[in-house]
Structures are given as structure tokens and as C-alpha cells.
């Protein structure tokens, strides 16, 4: 003999003796897991649900109303057939056209869940609809965990790229400055990357500034191939070439110049990339920049030339190189000092000899 059926009044039965109602339910007697409440599975637990449950005498049950738009309902039914095999189901059509199942006897057939039932996954959260936490995405970008970003949908990648941390840096900024090429590749593959490629942080640094500064030529090429502005200035008025020059990244400087980097672009204090390379003793960079048209006697806001910068920093090799390329040793800065006037006693004789050799040559 089967389990007792709920007593229903005449107003609660249709012509076939089955319960009726405009909200259609799946009553889950012992289901331990709730499917995610995302936009694809809107649970209709409202006034009609409560009214129907009361009228059908479903006591102690976990009742859920679900639109039949995915495989979730079918999986629930399979679960119920395993856990409560005596349950009775029927389908019906609501006024809105939503199809659902009625369970009319599940409340009398409780039984302990088997390990299989406990482990059964009932419509697990859809990763494409659950945006990871911003903190986790920034950590993944810094750590170089490309798998985190590969698992995201295009929509999620777009949302991830729109995020900013306390320094107004995007996940692309963080991945670039951490030299994580694989993460950068995944992020740049997203359509939204075109809106972030030239975004700047609170100091005006773009991802290209960071890539040039750390010396990652692969990332520099990736960014340029996606439309990075090679002459974009940061808060200090410096372009990516300024940083490649000061750090001595010869290959990166070559890449930037081949993409149209302006070799005579000045920062806020009037320094060109040649000033930067000269002050940090990067002789190969100085040679490259001069060959590419850098002005040897360009002056900054203090009236100082790259040669003066080299002399002040006691960069002997660069100083002699600049003189060989025709740098003026007699030019005065705004304080009235010439190159020789800025040179130390030990350095001055070398500069004089180099200047004489140029005149005699």
C-alpha cells in the first residue's frame, strides 16, 4: 500500500483529482543543495507559491518553483526518483506558458540520503555568471595565474578589465608590471582590451610605460600590436622611450622607435630620452638615439644639454661619445655654467682633449 495522499477539498481538486494551481512547483522533501539564484533560474517563491503550498498541505517540505529553461528540472526529477521513488509527478501549463512539475506525495516518503545522493550536483553555479572577486583577479594578475582569466567568459573578461585598484591600476597594468606575459595575452585577447590598452593609473602610467620600464620586450610588442600609444606621456610627461633609455633597454628602444616613438619628445622638465640615457651612463642607448635623429644639444628647463647631464653624473664614456657626435662644450646653462665648468678637476682634462680632437679632426 502506498503512502497516504494529502486530503484536498473539492476546491483544491480538478476534474482528474489532481491538485491545481497557477504557480507550478517542484517540492523537494530532502534535497540538501539549492541551485544558484542567478538570472537563468529565477525562483518564484512568492505569494502564489505560499498560497499553493498551504492549499496543498505541503508541510515540512522544501518547495521550489522553477522555470523550465535548462536541464536543471530534469536533473531534479532524476534525483527525486532516486531518493523518493513513490513520488507522483505530473506536468501542467501555467497562464504564462511556464511548464513545471507537481509533486503530490513527496512529504510522506522521507528517507536518509545515500552518499551518492549527497554528492549529486544539482545545477552547480554557472561560472560564466559568477564574477570572481576583484581582489582575487588582481592577485591572479600579479601571480601570473593565467588559468583564472582563461576560465572567464568574454563578458567576465570585460568586467575584469574595467576594474581598478586603489592606485587606479587595471588588472592589465598589474599583469604587465609583474611581467606575466601569459596573463597579458589572455587579457589582450578580449574585445574590451581596446578600451584599457591606453588607460592610465593615478600617476599617468599606461601598461606600455610599465612594460618599457621593466624591460619586457615581448609584452611591449604585444601592447603595441593591440594599439598602445607609443608616445603617450605619463604624469611626469615621459613616454615609454624615456624609460627604455634610462634603463638601457636597447631592444625595447629599437621596438618603440620602429613603431614611431619620437626621440626628441620632452618631459615636464624638458628632458629628452637622450638626456635620460646620458645621465644613467647608457652609451649604447645614446648611440642609437643619436643615429635615430636625437638632438645632441637639446636643452632642458635648466638649460642643460645631455652632455652636461653626463658630465654632472661623471659618466665618462657617454660624455666622450657625445663630444664625438658634435656636442657643444661651450654652451651655458641657466646658471651660467658651461660643460667644462660643470666638470670635476679630474674629468675636465679628458673633456678638453676630446674637444680638441674633434676640432682637429
Radius of gyration: 36 Å
**Number of structurally distinct domains:** 3
SS-based class: mainly alpha
Strand runs, count: 4
The amount of beta strand, in percent, is: under 5%
End-to-end Cα distance: 117 Å
Give the fraction of residues assigned to helices. 40-55%
Helix count, DSSP H or I runs of 4 or more residues: 18
Shape: elongated
Q: What is the strand arrangement across the widest sheet? A: 1-2
Mean model confidence by pLDDT: 76
The main sheet comes to: 2 strands, antiparallel
N-to-C series of helices and strands: EHEHEEHHHHHHHHHHHHHHHH
Low-confidence spans: pLDDT under 50, at least 5 residues? 1-70, 83-125
Organism: Prunus dulcis (Almond)
Keywords: ANK repeat, Repeat
Protein name: Ankyrin repeat family protein
Pfam families: Ank, Ank_2, Ank_4
Outline the structure in words:
The protein has 18 helices and 4 strands. The chain has helices at residues 47-55, 72-83, 115-119, 134-143, 146-150, 154-162, 171-177, 181-188, 207-214, 217-225, 240-247, 250-258, 273-279, 283-291, 306-312, 316-324, 339-342, 348-360, and strands at residues 26-28, 62-64, 89-93, 99-103. A two-stranded antiparallel ribbon has the order 1-2. A two-stranded antiparallel sheet has the order 3-4. Strand 3 and strand 4 (99-103) form a beta hairpin. 41% of the residues lie in helices and 4% in strands. It has 361 residues and is mainly alpha-helical. It has 3 domains: 10-119, no CATH class; 131-229, Ankyrin repeat-containing domain (Serine Threonine Protein Phosphatase 5, Tetratricopeptide repeat, Alpha Horseshoe); 266-361, Alpha Horseshoe (Serine Threonine Protein Phosphatase 5, Tetratricopeptide repeat), CATH 1.25.40.
Amino acid at each position: 500500500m502506498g503512502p497516504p495522499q494529502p486530503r484536498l477539498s473539492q476546491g483544491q481538486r480538478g476534474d482528474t483529482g489532481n491538485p491545481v494551481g497557477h504557480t507550478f512547483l517542484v517540492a523537494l522533501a530532502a534535497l540538501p543543495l539549492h541551485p544558484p539564484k542567478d538570472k537563468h533560474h529565477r525562483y518564484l517563491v512568492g505569494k502564489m507559491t505560499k498560497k499553493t503550498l498551504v492549499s496543498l498541505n505541503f508541510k515540512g517540505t522544501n518547495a521550489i518553483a522553477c522555470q523550465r529553461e535548462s536541464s536543471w528540472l530534469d536533473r531534479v526529477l532524476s534525483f527525486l526518483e532516486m531518493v523518493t521513488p513513490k513520488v507522483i509527478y505530473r506536468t501542467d501549463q501555467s497562464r504564462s506558458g511556464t511548464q513545471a512539475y507537481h509533486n503530490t506525495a513527496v512529504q510522506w516518503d522521507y528517507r536518509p540520503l545515500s552518499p551518492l545522493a549527497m554528492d549529486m550536483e544539482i545545477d552547480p553555479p554557472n561560472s560564466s555568471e559568477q564574477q570572481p572577486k576583484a581582489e582575487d583577479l588582481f592577485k591572479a594578475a600579479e601571480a601570473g595565474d593565467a588559468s583564472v582569466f582563461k576560465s572567464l567568459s568574454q563578458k567576465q573578461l570585460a568586467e575584469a578589465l574595467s576594474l581598478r585598484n586603489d592606485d587606479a591600476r587595471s588588472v592589465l597594468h598589474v599583469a604587465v608590471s609583474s611581467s606575466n606575459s601569459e596573463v597579458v595575452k589572455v587579457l589582450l585577447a578580449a574585445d574590451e582590451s581596446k578600451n584599457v590598452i591606453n588607460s592610465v593609473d593615478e600617476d599617468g602610467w599606461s601598461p606600455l610605460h610599465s612594460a618599457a620600464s621593466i624591460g619586457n620586450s615581448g609584452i611591449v610588442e604585444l601592447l603595441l600590436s593591440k594599439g598602445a600609444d607609443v608616445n603617450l606621456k605619463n604624469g611626469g610627461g615621459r613616454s615609454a622611450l624615456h624609460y627604455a633609455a634610462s634603463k638601457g633597454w636597447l631592444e625595447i628602444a629599437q621596438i618603440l622607435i620602429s613603431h614611431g616613438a619620437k626621440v626628441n619628445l620632452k618631459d615636464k622638465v624638458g628632458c629628452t630620452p637622450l638626456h635620460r640615457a646620458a645621465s644613467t651612463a647608457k652609451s649604447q642607448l645614446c648611440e642609437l638615439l643619436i643615429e635615430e635623429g636625437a638632438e645632441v644639444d637639446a636643452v632642458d628647463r635648466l638649460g642643460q644639454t645631455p652632455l652636461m647631464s653626463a658630465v654632472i653624473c661623471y659618466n665618462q664614456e657617454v660624455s666622450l661619445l657625445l663630444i664625438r657626435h658634435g656636442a657643444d662644450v661651450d654652451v651655458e646653462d641657466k646658471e651660467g655654467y658651461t660643460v667644462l665648468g660643470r666638470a670635476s678637476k679630474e674629468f675636465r682634462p679628458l673633456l678638453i682633449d676630446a674637444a680638441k680632437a674633434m676640432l682637429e679632426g
